[in-house]
Write a structure and sequence with these properties.
The protein is mainly alpha-helical. Helices cover 60% and strands 5% of the residues. The protein has helices at residues 17-20, 24-27, 29-49, 60-71, 75-88, 91-105, 121-158, 178-198, 213-218, 224-234, 250-279, 303-326, 336-341, 344-363, 369-377, 384-396, 405-413, 420-428, 434-442, 452-455, and strands spanning 163-168, 171-177, 202-203, 238-239, 282-284, 365-367. A hairpin with a 2-residue loop joins strand 1 and strand 2 (171-177).
């Protein structure tokens, strides 16, 4: 075989491995198999501890030995499973045989038939996926997202009062502050992050078509739904009582839809920051030894945000495809979900890589307040909104007889650049009260930011 044929096919397992490797603990094939072993072992212990079919609870040392098999799951087990699956052509059956080998090694053959008892493969798989996805979200992806939100919040607070010309439709608009605009993204992301945190991870454990048929045949007197509920919840999951052969995956649809929503907000953040960089509002801090262009040595490219954009698009495409696919299962079971779910790690990986790039990108930026002030100083016409609004208030209060304040300011400012002197002269000639005139004379683009700085306080204190 050519050496090239042995190279990683996915950039997540090659070029970007370091940024996403934490996900391998949960969302790799090995991570899934470890979770399957965990479910199988705990089910065996659940049955023996419950005294089903005359079985006695295992001794404490035997229980520890079985659980240590899960804790120490590593390359030996990965290789052994690959060998078993080459014969079984069935991944879950290979896991069952592996556990039977370990049980035999512990001298527990008398309870061997309780391995995978009354289970369909999907009883094991759905719980394993819920465990691994939950771990990946809570231990890897959400902390990374929270880190970016914290960065945004910190920057928002630090620059809460730094005035900035807004650009609605790409045109100069009512000034805001840089901090408030960053706070908008932190607030948006925080809301959806809370929704991701609130997603339930559901599990079923009810047999081949969700009827407990085999369970009841083996022991008609047991309360199998209660046993199932107790087992599923013992794994830290929410029990789903009504399913077909599969757990219906609705929790996954909800989760991946929300994660895609996070990606879309982050994409919006990246395109805005990229634009602010191009406008000079942010300066990029050159990194030692880095090259911006192979031919133009002066360039410092916003590659962190561009890389993040691409990876966010890939992640959302996969997450949205997963959500669409997993919402449907033909009749009581089909295998479209099996192939689809093997790409969960890829979807998470591209999102995690994007978060890593965004975090790095923000650490390589500096605010260019001089450029922000220059843009404000050359766009005095944005005060037209304030002037016509004050005139309206004066008309209502009986201190002005101007017929159409909006039209008056439109004629003065639309599509034009106006100097401070021209605007002051215009205000002095207005038919409004002296106090209103004095207020408008004092107004400048940098001071016309309303409550923007105070609105940053709506971010959580943490």
């Amino acid at each position: 075989m050519s050496p090239m044929a042995e190279q990683p096919l996915s950039p997540l397992d090659g070029r970007y491995r370091a940024a996403v490797s934490e996900l391998g603990e949960y969302l790799s094939e090995a991570g899934l198999n470890k979770a399957r072993v965990h479910v199988e072992v705990e089910w065996l212990l659940h049955l023996t501890n419950g005294g089903f079919f005359g079985a006695s609870p295992l001794e404490a040392a035997q229980q520890r030995a079985l659980r240590s098999f899960v804790a120490e799951f590593g390359q030996e087990e990965i290789d052994e499973l690959a060998e078993l699956e080459a014969t079984t052509r069935h991944d879950v059956k290979a896991v069952e045989y592996l556990i039977r080998r370990r049980i035999a090694g512990l001298g527990l053959n008398d309870v061997a038939e309780l391995t995978h008892f009354a289970c369909t493969s999907e009883d094991i798989n759905n719980l394993a996926y819920a465990i691994t996805v939950s771990g990946a979200v809570r231990s890897v992806w959400l902390p990374k997202l929270r880190g970016v939100i914290a960065q945004l919040s910190e920057l928002a607070v630090a620059h809460r009062a730094v005035p900035m010309l807004a650009h609605t439709h790409g045109q100069p608009a009512t000034p805001t502050t840089l901090g408030k605009e960053l706070a908008v993204f932190a607030h948006r992301l925080g809301r959806i992050a809370a929704q991701v945190e609130a997603v339930e991870y559901l599990g079923k454990f009810s047999g081949a078509t969700g009827t407990f048929g085999a369970h009841l045949a083996a022991d008609p007197d047991a309360d199998w739904p209660a046993v199932s509920r107790e087992f599923v919840t013992s794994l830290g999951l929410t029990w789903n009582p009504l399913t077909t052969q599969i757990e219906s995956h609705d929790w996954q649809v909800e989760l991946y839809s929300r994660m895609s929503h996070v990606n879309r907000i982050l994409h919006n953040l990246c395109t805005d920051v990229w634009t602010y960089i191009s406008m000079g509002y942010f300066a990029q801090i050159p990194q030692a030894g880095a090259t911006g262009s192979s031919t133009m040595p002066h360039k410092v490219n916003p590659i962190r945000f561009e890389n993040a954009e691409a990876n966010l698009e890939l992640s959302s495409a996969l997450l949205e495809s997963l959500a669409a696919t997993l919402a449907t299962s033909r009749l009581q079971r089909d295998l479209t979900d099996s192939s689809a779910q093997r790409n969960i790690g890829v979807a998470f990986g591209h999102s995690l890589l994007a978060l890593d790039n965004i975090g790095r990108g923000f650490r390589e930026l500096a605010v260019n307040e001089e450029r922000l002030r220059a843009d404000l100083d050359t766009n005095w016409e944005v005060l037209g909104e304030a002037i016509q609004t004050v005139i309206r208030a004066e008309v209502t209060a009986g201190r002005s007889s101007i017929a159409d304040p909006y039209a008056l300011l439109k004629e003065l400012t639309r599509g034009k650049r106006i100097s401070q002197a021209e605007l002051v002269e215009f205000v002095d000639g207005l038919d409004i009260g002296d106090e209103a005139k004095a207020r408008l004379r004092e107004l400048t683009p940098p001071t016309y930011t309303g409550l923007a700085a105070d609105l940053v306080d709506h971010l959580p204190a943490d």
